[in-house]
Amino acid sequence: MSKQVTRVDTLFLHQTGDDYLVVARRDGKRVLRGKLELKETNAGPRPLRFLVTRKGDDSPRDPSQFVELARSAARIRISQQTPKDGRDELKEMLDGYQLEALTVRTCRRCAVNGRYSPITDDTAIKAEHEHICRDCAVQELEGELSFAGGLTQAAQERLEELLYETGDLTRITNLLQGELDPDLTKFDTISATTEDVELVETETLDLHPNLKSMLTERFDTLLPVQSLAIDNGLLDGDDQLVVSATATGKTLVGELAGINRMLNDDGKMLFLVPLVALANQKHEDFKERYGHLGKVTIRVGASRINDDGNRFDPNADVIVGTYEGIDHALRTGKDLGDIGTVVIDEVHTLKEEERGHRLDGMIARLKHYCEARAKRRESYGGAQWIYLSATVGNPKWLAQTLRANLVEYEDRPVPIERHVTFADGQEKPRIENRLVRQAFDSKSSKGYRGQTIIFTNSRRRCHEIARKMDYNAAAYHAGLDYGQRKRVERQFANQDLAAVVTTAALAAGVDFPASQVIFDTLAMGIEWLSVQEFSQMLGRAGRPDYHDKGVVYLLVEPDASYHNTMEMTEDEVAFKLLKGEMEEVRTVYDQSSAVEETLANIVVAGKKAKALNSRMLGEVPTTHAVGKLLEWGFIDGLDPTPLGLAVTRQFLSPREAFAILDGIRKGSSPYEIVADLELDEEGR
């Protein structure tokens, strides 16, 4: 400190032991820190010693310099944490120099460290038995986060927001210990919304009498999205892209068109879905609902015998299938008969890196099949196409590209609360158990218990979590056989299960009316969820006929990832998903996918393969793809070679085909070849 004292804005005094801490601030910055010792005189308390602290050393100054400093200050403040005797002593000393001071509430931790931090009822943060300033609270929170493994900036900002809102540090740090505090874990609420749609009365529909009688027995009016579909030409044969939230009645849109055309001898209905589990459930539903009107069959994978023991019948009136099941029939030249309606459920699969190009190609090949058949049979007029999805970021573009009328209904039948809390992998089952119990112990106004879907990233983890539940819970994934899956579905429908724990199998729409969805992880396998997948999965929470609201919990492990190829951490992904916008549905082709789909189109359409490529959703570099097919010996001219036929019928990528050929040449056993392919797929 220079001998000449400059003017300061604030002089702060706080008792520490027998001395007083002195902090001087100017323009918001500390310009001096020191210690003051008083002595008792006939005139009252007066400065005895004044020390200025610099770089950890205390340098003595003439006590009169403290008086000059105090006189230069615009305001003098005494910490409320100073005991009453000390405050009285300081005020008496200052009165002797005709100086006034106010007692203010300050942060004790700052005062101990030589900082002046006034706090108010609005800014004080409760920390155990005292109140501290926001800076100290954030500093302590960051220490807790560091101990917990660290959080990304987005997660830290979220916790700081909650800290300021609650003014209670302990409540926030408890979140990091896996404590559930609904007021704090709640991120937002997606409100229930309804559009003003004039509902169509079922009695007025121009339907086949058998279908109409069934419909009028069940409903007086159609639901809004169904009414919009009717208004947009559903029963006139117009192609449609129907985009609406889960549980709004999209499936019936496809059924109305398909069953009506089937009964009127306008061709059979194909109802196509991405997953075997979903196909099995739709098959059972359709057999029960429409089995008396026509034969219902199922086509999944390459086998003619399905896992329920039934034989696939290509002559059936209603065919439920997976995308790959129907595509295999096309690639192998199966006769599917006259197709009147094609319903593509979960059409947003078109954007998926692994499966999108195959769905895109299958649609082009199936349209080619229907058009070729229409040319051969004058009595058959071709197929009507209905595309269904709950999650499309670019519906207008997609509808235009598919040449379909857009039916968009932005409706949420029940509100959904979204919650975020932090927990490590070992702690998560305890939290899930508590949430499952809370839901199952409650009933909605409709009389249904709360039931839970828990999404996790592996089949092993499904069983691990299910075993740790106090109430009845079951694992549900593609590794279960048909009978096991049906048993779980039946138990859930009867409310005999409090929860199912699943991988991606339920995300695509298997009908489990759950009130609550818990994300045990935000990964599926070794990849993070996309915004679209996340939205699809959380949309399973809350059904209008069962529940008053849906509840979604994200259990986030700080600084966690599940594979070394994952660039982000789980807390970073959580807030990206919660705040993210729906991705656009577009199919992007690289060399491998372009070659695979071009080969399949050549196998199905021969010289017309180029025309099929040009009508696909994504841009396929046809000339380059054909060149590679010739180079690799998959085609001869525009005819598939035996190798090319084998590759396309087994849905092999070029990389997989070459890996198998290499294994055969080396004399590897089939098991070794499959193992090598699996390890390569997992990036090991």
From TrEMBL:
GO terms for molecular function: ATP binding; catalytic activity, acting on DNA; helicase activity; hydrolase activity; nucleic acid binding. Residues 435-586 form the Helicase C-terminal domain. This is Helicase AshA. It comes from Haloferax prahovense (strain DSM 18310 / JCM 13924 / TL6). The keyword rRNA processing does not apply. InterPro entries: DEAD/DEAH_box_helicase_dom, Hel308_SKI2-like, Helicase_ATP-bd, Helicase_C-like, P-loop_NTPase. Pfam families: DEAD, Helicase_C. Keywords: ATP-binding, Helicase, Hydrolase, Nucleotide-binding. PANTHER family: ATP-DEPENDENT HELICASE MJ1401-RELATED, DNA POLYMERASE THETA, PUTATIVE (AFU_ORTHOLOGUE AFUA_1G05260)-RELATED. Transmembrane segments: none annotated. Residues 231-410 form the Helicase ATP-binding domain.
